[in-house]
Every structure is written in structure tokens, then in C-alpha cells.
Amino acid sequence: MVNSTQNITLITCGNFDMKYIDKVANTVKMVFHREVTIRNGNVELIEYYNPSRRQYNGDLLLKKVDSLRNPGENKIMGLFQVDLFIPILTYIFGQAYLNGSTGISSNYRLYNERYGLKPDNELMLTRFQKEVVHELGHEFGLIHCFTPDCVMQSSTYVEDIDQKSIRFCRSCNSKLGL
Q1: Which residues pair with 105 in a beta bridge?
Q2: Which of 16, 105, 113, 118 has the fewest CB atoms lying closer than 10 Å?
Q3: Is position 73 annotated as part of the catalytic site?
Q4: For the residues 137-156, what does the mean pLDDT come to?
Q5: Dihedral, 132, 62, 37, 25 alpha carbons, nearest 10
């Protein structure tokens, strides 16, 4: 259940447009019904880069973001623009500590151009918003959901993200107490 006193902080780890991040923050605020703080996190990414995979290690970045927590911050989400992986998967859109306080999300694989399609910045933003909400859902204790349009539905491919809503299903809402 979501504790209404828990705050959410989005930590930008990259060169994001602030209007874009404000839209992400407003979505998180709307879904979780709480204030959202945005701050910059200076992460030197080179030490997380795996040259043989040409990707960044999500497990290590998750630990790094966790170390960036300021006193009084309950739930934090590191926002990235790099290609993430974990050793058992080819790539990930994000990850979080289940029932924890830290998560990461990247928009790297959310651009249509990566799949030979014409650019659609609004679609990419919506995908990123869904992924951030999804990972925060894990932080608040939710596991993957089998309700087709729930934001907690697992996403292996970008098309999976497109199929789900930006909101929690009734069951997940109930578990969160929203």
C-alpha cells in the first residue's frame, strides 16, 4: 500500500529537455497522487559501459542511483538516455528494487527511429511515462500484472508498451491503496 507521506524524486542522469521531464513528472504526480521533485544527478556513465555489449549495465546504474539518495527522499527514479542491459537480458527499458526505494528508466529504445519508423515524439514520451510509472509501481511493491492494459503488464518489446495504459488496473490500484 502506498504511504501518502512517501515522496517521489526523479533524478535526471543525462541531458534532458526540462519540458519533457516536467511532462513525465506531471504524469507521475497524476498517477500516484503526490508531489514529485526533479533534480539533476551527475553520473559519469563511462564506468558503467560494457564495451563488448556496447550498452550500460543496469544493475550497476541502479546501485549508483541508490547512492544518490538525499536525506528525506523516499522513492527515487534515475532517468537515462542510454541503452541498458542486465546480464540475463539483451536489453531493458528499466528496472527497480521490488518494494524498495530506487529504480531506473531509459528512453533509449523508445524512439520509433530505432525500429525504422518515422519519428513520433509524443509516442516516445508516452512510452517513457509508462515505463517510469511501471518501475515506480515495482518500488511500491507491485509485480507484473496479467491484466492486458495495466501499466504493470510486462514489456519485452516496445510494442508491448504501446498496448498498455499509463494507469494501474483495478487490482493494482487496490494493492496500492489508490
Answers
A1: 79, 94
A2: 118
A3: no
A4: 96
A5: -10
| Predicted pLDDT of residue 6 | 81
Q: Which of 17, 10, 48, 12 is nearest to 136 (CA)?
A: 10
Rounded Cα–Cα distance for residues 170 and 35 (Å): 22
Q: Give φ, ψ of 40 to 5 degrees.
A: -85, 140
Nearest to 126 by CA among 154, 151, 156, 146: 151
Q: What is the DSSP string of the chain?
A: ---TT--EEEEE-S---HHHHHHHHHHHHHHHTS-EEEEE----GGGGEETTTTEEEHHHHHHHHHHTPPTT--EEEEEE-S-EEETTEEEESEEE-TTSSEEEEE-GGG-GGGGT----HHHHHHHHHHHHHHHHHHHTT---B-STT-TTB--SSHHHHHHS-SS--HHHHHHHT-
pTM: 0.94
Round the average pLDDT of the chain to a whole number and report it.
94
- pLDDT score, position 2: 57
Q: Is 93 exposed, middle or buried (0-12, 13-18, 19+ CB in 10 A)?
A: buried
The pLDDT-based confidence of 172 (bands split at 50, 70, 90) is very high
